[in-house]
Amino acid sequence: MIDLDLALQRGEFSLELAITTPLRALALFGPSGCGKTSTLLAMAGLLHPRRGRMAIDDHVLFDSAAGIDLPAAHRNLGVVFQDARLFPNMSVRDNLRYGMPRGAAPAAFDDAVSLLGLSTLLKHKPGQLSGGQARRVAIGRALLRRPRALLLDEPLANLHREARAEVLQHLVRLKQEFALTTVMVSHQHDEVAALADAVALIDDGRLAALQDIAEFRATPAAPYAATTAPDRCAAR
Predict the structure, then answer these.
(1) Where are the chain's structural domains?
(2) Global pTM?
(3) pLDDT tens digits, one per residue of 80-100
């Protein structure tokens, strides 16, 4: 269960969303600048709502009425940003191991490396990686934290066509092989159709619709995009 009910203010921009779904893979979909990333950052504990409640299953992240606001480090979430944010002085192997729980089974590391196709890159430094490779390492590092949920901010953004297809293929495998709650930010119809089970259509900080993936796949992206105006708000 993903349960989000939040209100926050960023300058003149206000975000008010209420989303509840029992499905494990939720996409926040809409044009740039209309609240998707703000929602993800609030879940991660990097933005603080004025009020509301956020919970994943029985794990409450924030509840203004109950006085709960877990620090980001205590939310047990794996977060992958658009920029990979790898440690430049550490190898891929050490980047992946960073944050792994003590006593984690070695097989977990091997499984993640295999799933994401990283076995030939373990000795490389981030500066030697392509954009798609770096993104896969960032996903692997988040996954190896054994998080309660994975938060993905535009996981395929700024990748060329081949790298985008490669990372998407690995994300589809991850979804198939791990029963892990995922919240993904995107404005790309095809990646949402491939990775989500439920889709929240967001328009200027408000929920326009909540669809299951069958409804979303049956709805062309263009009509929704035409009813929104990305230039109304700055990047959020």
Answers:
(1) 2-88+147-232
(2) 0.88
(3) 988 889 999 999 999 999 878
